[in-house]
Structure formats: structure tokens, C-alpha cells
Amino acid sequence: MERQMDLFDIRVGAEIVAFPIDRQLVRVRRTARQLEQRTGALAEKFWKTECNRLYARLQVQGLEHAEIKAELDRFADAVRIEMERALLARRAKEIQAG
After folding, report:
1. 55-96 pLDDT, tens digit each
2. 57 burial level (CB within 10 Å; 0-12, 13-18, 19+)
3. CA–CA gap between residue 42 and residue 35 (Å, rounded)
4. What pTM does this model have?
5. Tally of structural domains, the chain
């Protein structure tokens, strides 16, 4: 007879996989909106603070430096694309308004 696995057996390991930050649409959109409201040094400071915060969070989750850098690069791309999307949407609205 086969023994049933004990779900509360702490010897059974599990790998925690973090949800990719570039897929966290609310975070991407919020960051894009915040950047759109800032210019120059203020925008740069906000961006560095946000990246440092994300780096620390991913580090605590156990990711290595290379993995974190890749995550942050994908996040930066997602924010840039969101900012471009929002700009095109505003322009389209202006054209439709005449």
C-alpha cells in the first residue's frame, strides 16, 4: 500500500517563484504615470528610488544579482512601452477632438 504524502511535512521543499515585475500592470502603469509627472532630476531620483526598492524586494526573495538585473531591465522596458502607449492614446484623443 502506498503511503499518502504528508502536506505538513517540513522536509518537503518548495521553490518560490516571484511573479515577474514587468507583468505587474498596476505597478508598471503607476510608475509610468509618476514618471510622466516629473522631469529632469526629480524623474531620475524617483526612478532610482523605485529601482532600488524593487532590487531590495527581489533580493529578499532570494534572486541573484543577474536575475534581478534582468527583471529590472524588463520592468524598465514595460514602463517605457506604457509611457509610449499613453502618449499615443492622448494624441489619438486630441486628433479625434479636432
Report:
1. 999 999 999 999 999 999 999 999 999 999 999 999 999 999
2. middle
3. 9
4. 0.80
5. 1
